[in-house]
Design brief:
Layout lengths: L9 H7 L10 H25 L6 H24 L7
Helix pairs in contact: 2-3
């Protein structure tokens, strides 16, 4: 595989990995999946901020952690179902 210092064109780098050059059809799906993950991360941030409040009791904090774990699972599921985007 070429290193960043080598003077390979993008097309030569793609040929080395046997990837098709026309990846435009994948772009809308990739952007959709990134938007889904961004939305989940924003919800996770809100939950983390709520959990950091000193007024939150341990039981509520545990419930928030369960929600965070579920959201992390959603991100993992999105990554698994779109794994073909990253296959070499």
């Amino acid at each position: 595989m070429p290193t960043p210092d080598d003077n390979y064109s993008k097309s030569e780098a793609f040929e080395d990995r046997n990837l098709p050059l026309d990846t435009a059809p994948m772009l809308p799906l990739a952007l959709q999946k990134l938007d889904e993950i961004r939305d989940i991360l924003e919800r996770m941030l809100l939950l983390a901020e709520a959990s950091a409040d000193p007024a939150v009791e341990d039981a509520e904090r545990a419930a928030l952690q369960k929600r965070l774990d579920r959201l992390r699972g959603e991100i993992d599921a999105i990554a698994a179902e779109s794994g073909w985007l990253y296959e070499r």
